[in-house]
Amino acid sequence: MRLTTKGRFAVTAMIDLAMRQHSGPVTLAAISQRQNISLSYLEQLFGKLRRHELVDSVRGPGGGYSLARLARNVTVADIIFAVDEPLDATSCGGKQDCTSGKDGKSGKCMTHELWATLNRKMVDYLDSVSLQDLVDQQRVRQLQEANNTTQNCTVRVNRGPGNSSGAGTATTVPGGAAAAV
C-alpha cells in the first residue's frame, strides 16, 4: 500500500502555503513553481481543500489562498481525506468480503484484522501530526541548511600581481571566514 501522488502533493502544497501565508494570500502559481507541481493539478487539489474548509481563497489582484484554520488545527489526516485519498491496506476496502469460499460465501480473509489494524494506526498517526508540526520541521531544516552553507563557505582570495591568473587559492574556514594562503 502506498500513499498516492494526490495525498503527497496536497500535504506538500499545504506546508508551502502555511510557511508563506504571513505575507498574505499565496498563489497556486507560486506554489507550483517552488514545489514543481502542475498548476492544473494544484487547482484540482485546492478545490477539494477549499470545499473541506481547510483553505480560503481570495479573488482578484493580490489574491490566492490562505489557511482557513490555524496550522496547529489542521492534521495530515484532514488534508489526505480532503483530497479523497484512500488509506486502506485491506484487499476488500474494509467491507470484510476479502475471500470467497467454495460454497460461494464471502467473508474476512485470514489477514483482514492485521490490515484493518494497520489502517487504524495509520489514521491515528496522521491525525497526530499537525500542519504546524511539519512547518516547524521544515523551518528547522532550512536553518540547518543555512548554517551548513555559512560554515562551508568558499572564498577566492587574490594573491596579487605575482599570480598570472589573478585568482588565489580556494580556502574553506569554519565559520565562513576567509584566510589567505
UniProtKB/TrEMBL annotation:
Molecular function via GO: DNA-binding transcription factor activity; double-stranded DNA binding
Domain of life: Bacteria
UniProt entry keywords in alphabetical sequence: DNA-binding
Cross-referenced SUPFAM superfamilies: Winged helix' DNA-binding domain
Gene3D superfamilies: Winged helix-like DNA-binding domain superfamily/Winged helix DNA-binding domain (1.10.10.10)
Keyword DNA-binding attributed: yes
Low complexity bias (residue ranges): 166-181
Keyword Ribonucleoprotein in annotation: no
Region (Disordered): 151-181
GO CC, any one term: cytosol
NCBIfam families attached to this UniProt entry: IscR (TIGR02010), rrf2_super (TIGR00738)
UniProt protein name: Fe-S cluster assembly transcriptional regulator IscR
Species whose genome carries this gene: Bordetella genomosp. 10
